[in-house]
Design brief:
The complex is a heterodimer of chains A (172) and B (433).
Chain A (H helix, E strand, L loop, with lengths): L2 H38 L6 H20 L18 H32 L12 H27 L17
Chain B lengths: L5 H14 L4 H15 L6 H11 L6 H14 L2 H13 L5 H14 L5 H17 L6 H12 L9 H10 L3 H30 L12 H24 L4 H19 L5 H34 L2 H10 L5 H18 L2 H18 L4 H14 L8 H10 L3 H24 L1 H10 L5
Classes of the chains: A mainly alpha (172), B mainly alpha (433).
Chain lengths: 172, 433
């Protein structure tokens, strides 16, 4: 890869990580605020739980789009892990093309759905749902672009990234 | 089931894409989109299910918060303090360090809900301590760390139990209480096996820690030992919701690491947040994929169909639980645990309910099965992690895991067929089941 673009890519990824860590911090702080208000000040507030659940949705989709690498996601690698690199390349091309096609075909209907949600607002913070749910469109586009990129690499004959099941963070 | 129906194609696509190595979350979303397309339904439904599902799953917020709590706790080098503490009490017996490994896991499991986090945090240190001067073989030490880590998600807090609470609509509080006795039971059978093996294999004894050092060692570990007290206290008394208890646990861990252990830097906090965020994202994507696919499963009425089909076999709760254990154990050898919990368990649930199996009991049984799946070859994430940490061939670890597997399955049988072991604590706290 062009070293200039490599640097920009790494810089962008770190910024995406900053956002993800920040979103988790928001969830944590929102909960603490909620606890303080409910139990110490005896004044229950509703917007904190709404904020944290919104942030959770954004954290997962933002992170899946920009933070977690393809090789870090939870997968079944008993077969793909044992295959030799050229075989894995073929497997990567098949799965990459399939998933790209499926996300791309459903994209128009997805955009329609998210746009349609402009009629509703959240109960406390009054955020329009089309704004709130727009993260899914960002996510879907990012997935399409990512697999396009992986696919172009594989088609030019590059080997797929090696898998390491111990870096997979399944949380179990 | 019609082999050319949209549902069959969707399942085929998910299985094929997963086998070929696509991340399972994407495979489930992709397969469900294919179903919608073939069935002539609105393809925006995939996004709708995912977004509404994630937006309404408030209980899942406990997951990032519990992961964060464990991360904050490990900043303060808690593992080392806990190991010293355990060593002061059980090190003096034959096979002492091996017992320390298990006791440390039991204590750590009341702060962490993740088996892999347990192995990752104590694995390296434990491996070094146990293999020093050739006390234990590297493969035994690695196998022991793997099996003792299984306890972490059974004793509360527990990430898989939070996921089960979501798929089964059961109270997290009761599920957590239900996990206490089964988790301890698994720890006890492991310790008994070590005590038995220790004499046969002549395991070493640790130098007894002088009595006068014990107060200091206890004091150093004390703040960490208080964590389960706080957590269980919140749950027992019902003062806070379990999700709020998770946030409190994280706050407590941060304060302890910052003020008592003085180990916190801004960089440390940032790294903890990022690590916890990464785990949250991976597991969240899997849950998101399962939410979309579960829509397809429900639209096709699969769980009900299965329940009716199984009715024909005149299942009793006993035979059902036996069958469920077998299915989950076999799947655990090949599949990733969260996937089993998100896809297979919900399919079994209606049958369990129809037969009068208690959902809290069933949840604990399912989670114990799935945790055992983390140490069963060929696919066991804990085994893989220990291969990497200990640099021992998988085959050698598996050989040492086998006796532990046998006693854990015996414990599983006890947990499965004596429901009161699991339900005793929740009932004490008012669970009507």
């Amino acid at each position: 890869m062009n070293p200039f673009f490599g640097k920009i890519g790494a810089w962008l990824r770190r910024r995406a990580e900053n956002v993800a860590a920040g979103l988790l911090a928001v969830i944590f702080v929102a909960f603490i605020v909620q606890i303080v208000f409910r139990y110490l000040l005896n004044f229950p507030i509703g917007w904190t739980s709404e904020l944290s659940v919104i942030t959770w949705l954004w954290l997962v989709l933002w992170g899946a789009a920009f933070v977690v690498k393809e090789s870090e996601e939870i997968r079944f690698d008993l077969i793909s892990g044992a295959a030799d690199p050229s075989m894995r390349r073929v497997m990567g091309i098949i799965t990459g093309a399939a998933i790209m096609a499926l996300y791309a075909t459903s994209l128009p209907a997805t955009v329609d759905y998210v746009g349609f949600m402009k009629v509703e607002k959240t109960s406390y913070l009054k955020i329009r749902f089309d704004w709130l749910y727009s993260i899914y469109v960002i996510f879907a586009v990012a997935v399409i672009v990512r697999y396009l990129w992986i696919l172009s690499h594989l088609l030019r004959g590059k080997e797929p990234e090696a898998l390491d099941s111990t870096t997979v963070s399944s949380g179990l | 089931m019609n082999p050319t129906s949209p549902f069959s194609f969707a399942v085929l696509a998910i299985v094929a894409l997963s086998l070929l190595g696509l991340p399972i979350g994407h495979a489930m979303i992709g397969g469900s989109v294919l179903y919608l397309f073939l069935a002539g339904l609105d393809m925006g439904t995939a996004a709708e299910q995912l977004l509404n599902g994630m937006y309404s799953s408030f209980v899942l917020l406990a997951i990032p918060l519990f992961i964060l709590a464990a991360e904050f706790m490990t900043i303060g080098s808690i593992t080392e303090r806990l190991l010293n503490f355990c060593n002061a009490f059980v090190g003096r017996y034959r096979g002492g360090l091996a017992q320390v490994n298990v006791v440390q896991s039991i204590i750590f499991s009341s702060m962490s809900g993740s088996a892999l986090a347990d192995a990752a945090s104590s694995g390296k240190l434990m491996q070094k301590m146990m293999t020093q001067d050739g006390k234990y073989t590297a493969s035994f030490a690695a196998a022991l760390t793997a099996v003792s880590s299984v306890i972490a998600p059974i004793i509360p807090p527990s990430i898989p139990l939070v996921i089960y609470a979501l798929v089964s609509d059961t109270s997290i509080g009761y599920l957590f209480l239900a996990g206490v006795v089964p988790g301890l039971l698994i720890g006890i059978v492991q310790m008994l096996l070590i005590a038995f093996t220790a004499r046969r294999r002549n395991f070493p004894v640790e130098k007894p820690v002088p009595l006068r050092d014990i107060p200091r060692i206890t004091w150093e570990a004390f703040p960490a030992l208080m964590m389960p007290v706080i957590l269980l206290g919140c749950l027992y008394s019902g003062i806070t919701t379990p999700t709020e208890a998770a946030a409190l646990a994280a706050l407590y861990a941060l304060l302890v690491s910052a003020f008592l252990y003085r180990a916190v830097t801004w960089r440390g906090v940032y790294n903890s947040l990022l690590t916890a965020a990464r785990v949250t994202i991976s597991i969240g994507m899997l849950i998101a994929g399962a939410m979309v696919f579960n829509y397809v499963i429900t639209a096709e009425n699969i769980p009900k169909t299965l329940a009716i089909m199984l009715k024909g076999y005149a299942l009793t709760p006993f035979t059902f639980l036996l069958l469920a254990n077998l299915i989950l154990l076999v799947l655990g050898c090949f599949l990733e645990g969260t996937t089993i919990l998100l896809i297979i368990v919900p399919v079994l649930l209606p049958t369990a309910q129809a037969l009068g199996v208690d959902p809290v009991h069933f949840g604990v049984v399912a989670v114990v099965n799935i945790m055992i799946g983390l140490v069963t070859p060929p696919y066991g994430l804990l085994l893989f992690m220990m291969v990497k940490i200990a640099e021992v061939p998988l085959r050698d670890i598996v050989r040492e895991v086998m006796p532990f597997l046998a006693v854990m399955i015996a414990a599983l049988a006890l947990i499965t067929f004596v429901p009161s072991l699991t339900l005793f604590l929740p009932r004490l706290m008012g669970y009507q089941g």
